[in-house]
Amino acid sequence: MASQKVSPAIQKRVDALREKLREHDYRYYVLARPSISDEQYDKLMRELLELEQAYPSLAAPDSPSVRVGGEPTKEFPTVTHGAAMLSLSNTYNEEEVLDFDRRVKSLLGKEPYRYVCELKFDGVAISLVYEKGVLARGATRGDGTQGDDVTQNLKTIRSIPLRLVKEKKGLEDIEVRGEVFMERGEFQKMNEERELAGEKVFINPRNSAAGTLKLQDSKVVAQRPLKFFSYYLRPEKVKLTSHYENLKLLKEFGFPVNEHARLCKNIDEVIEYWKEWEERREDLPYDIDGVVVKVDSLRQQDRLGATAKSPRWAIAFKFTARKKETVLKDIVVQVGRIGTITPVAELEPVFVGGSTVSRATLHNEDYIKELDIRIGDTVVVEKGGDVIPKVSAVVKDKRKSGTKPFQMPRTCPECGSKISRPDEEANYYCNNTECPAQVKARIEHFAHRGAMDIEGLGEAVVEQLVGLKFVYNYADLYDLQKKKSKLEGLERWGEKSVQNLLDGIEESKKKPFARVLFAIGIRHVGAGVAQLLVRHFLSIDKLMKASKEDIDDIPGVGPQIAESVAEFFEDKHNRAIVERLRKAGVQMEEKISKAAKSSPVFGKSFVLTGGLETMTREEAKEQILALGGSVGSGVSKTTDYVIVGEGAGSKLDKAKKLGIKMIDEKEFKKLLGTK
Predict the structure, then answer these.
(1) Residue 137 in contact with residue 79, Cβ under 8 Å?
(2) CB-based contacts of 374: which residues, under 8 Å, 6+ apart?
(3) Global pTM exceeds 0.85
(4) CA distance 125 to 206
(5) Backbone angles phi, psi at 630, to 5 degrees
(6) CA 53, CA 74: separation in Å to the nearest integer?
(7) CA 526, CA 571: separation in Å to the nearest integer?
(8) Of residues 120, 294, 390, 440, which has the active-site annotation?
(9) Which residues does 557 contact at the CB level (< 8 Å), separation at least 6?
(10) If you average pLDDT over residues 509-516, what whole number do you get?
């Protein structure tokens, strides 16, 4: 069927279906005025999908069918933004906003100016690049200079146009920026459904949106209630004049633009706008944490310029946190995914910042001591940024007699293991990797692509395996073969999917020792530190016998890491896990061949920047490690080579500044001894 010739009638029908679906997406998700039922829409989509599957040559990157998601991706390539995505300076009071206005007036002289005020959404900033009117790339903000390419995930958000609804001459190639977010009601509904299904619930809409954009399976992303507002337009070829007019242009192009943006002729109107929305923010279906104030004229924006971190022509006018008094009933401690012990306040329920709060973070032991927080106290609760509630003060005048200072427990509330607080750190930790509170997160980390890279072992599968008590720690993964028939009998599983998982687990045994050391999840031991430890000790046995002083002596390690490593291997549970991994056939020593020792790569430190043509960055790292080299995440004086690929970013500039040797992919392959 795939090789069939496409008749003009089929092509015409596919074109018509796409046009109809684009129109209905725009009407529903941008205009909020749907003209057909969900059932009718689904019928059109099913017909399009069937035709595209029957005639693969008809596939198109801007087809509405991509909204349902595609094949899972293994990694998110790094992309460099055409113009830096600068963060805004924050201000919380009128005086600071008046100071901002005085600076603008001083720099512009007698020239008149005006402001545009917009709501500051509590979401995730993204950049969308359109080429010839079609969405070509979507990326996260990242560090402002470089972000992650999450195009496939962003294509599933139906309020983001895959092609411009209306095109204007010279404006076919543009960059659009905006915010991905979730509405509170949709977020709550999603959490309720996950809870009913026995799945992990999310903390808040912003974290949920951020986490969703980094999922590797776009089909899962397509099921999440993500929305989008645009607020920035940058054309490649045409010079525009007004930010406020640009918002109107974005609307013409088919982008959702928030209806509450307002043109203000002076700073007094800006303050009035801020006061209005500080009062009305809870009327909105989504979270905002302030307003954004921008000089309207794009020519004046250029004239005002920017500092290294933020533009001089814009400012974020944040809302003050909402505060209420209530009684602290108890202090309990909870265990985080890497064993962090966090004290949490149990409160008399109080309505603050749009929701009822009965629990709030107390951060750590030092925070409790600093504020002298005691059980039974009347405390002040606030929602910082209207998201995470915290106890910010104690009303000492209302303290009852007989209260006692809080003491942190000495054992983990989940598993009973001894907890410890490393030197120069504020948190206590449980170092038992079999602690129930840590199991799921540790297995997910172990299976991650940068660690053991076990295909098919994502968050949902881990959740299921742990829930069914098939695994209690990551060593149990290597015994799953014994449960093969039980796995095949589970819902949504089959013989092929089970075999793929077992094959992935078996393949992970070939991963080098450095990947294993990173995978087992020692606090502060990232991929780079794992390489340093492996190069020095060469085997798990030597590392387990090493003292804190031995580890601290390694250049690039330091006392904090040394203490964490030593404490990890002092725990009997962790040592038992290591032994089980060894017996399963996982690599526990560095094997350096004669060829590697004679290679120019051996003992050298590399940093990669940009994309490579003939291999992925992960493959390049593997080859360096196999030949006895190491790979760093950042450029420093100890870096020997910087491998420069397409779209190289800030690491290239630092390498030039430090005089580090830079090589391209061709020179790198010569060092590897490949063509």
Answers:
(1) yes
(2) 328, 394, 399, 403, 404, 405, 406
(3) no
(4) 11
(5) -130, 155
(6) 23
(7) 20
(8) 120
(9) 529, 532, 533, 551
(10) 92
Q: Is 237 noted as a catalytic residue in this protein?
A: no
**360: nearest Cα among 395, 334, 399:** 334
Closest CA to 157 of 237, 84, 224: 224
String of DSSP letters for 485-542: HHHHTSTT--HHHHHHHHHHHHHGGGS-HHHHHHHTT-TT--HHHHHHHHHHH-BHHH
Write the pLDDT tens digit of every residue in 436-485.
778 888 898 899 877 898 988 887 888 889 888 899 899 999 999 999 99
Q: Please state, in angstroms and rounded to a whole number, the distance separating the CA atoms of residues 305 and 82.
A: 17
CA distance 668 to 644: 9
CA 653 – CA 22 distance, rounded (Å): 43
Q: Please, what is the angle between helix 459-467 and helix 439-447, to 10°?
A: 140
User: 373-391 pLDDT, tens per residue?
Assistant: 999 999 999 875 445 688 9
Distance of CA 224 to the CA centre of its chain: 15
Q: What's the Cα-to-Cα distance from 26 to each of 33, 161, 163, 237, rounded to whole Å?
A: 9, 8, 11, 26
Least confidently predicted of 256-270, 353-367, 578-592 = 353-367
| Three-state SS at 35 | coil
595 vs 285, 408, 480, CA distance in Å? 63, 54, 37
Mean pLDDT of 33-52: 76
Strand partners, 134: 131, 163
Calpha distance 140→133 (Å, rounded): 20
How far is C-alpha 67 from the chain's CA centre? 21
CA separation for the pair 330, 326 (Å, rounded):
12
Q: Which of these, 500, 498, 440, lies nearest to 466 by C-alpha position?
A: 440
Helix (H) / strand (E) containing 124 = strand 124-131
- State in Å, rounded, how far the first CA of the chain is from the last one: 40
Query: Residue 148: beta bridge partners?
Result: 78
For 145-200, what is the HEC assignment? CEEEECHHHHHCCCCCCCECCCCCCCCCCEEEEEEEECCHHHHHHHHHHHHHCCCC
pLDDT of residue 613: 81
Domains and CATH numbers, the chain: 8-68 (1.10.287.610), 90-316 (3.30.470.30), 322-398 (2.40.50.140), 431-590 (1.10.150.20), 594-672 (3.40.50.10190)
Distance CA 518, CA 328 (A): 40
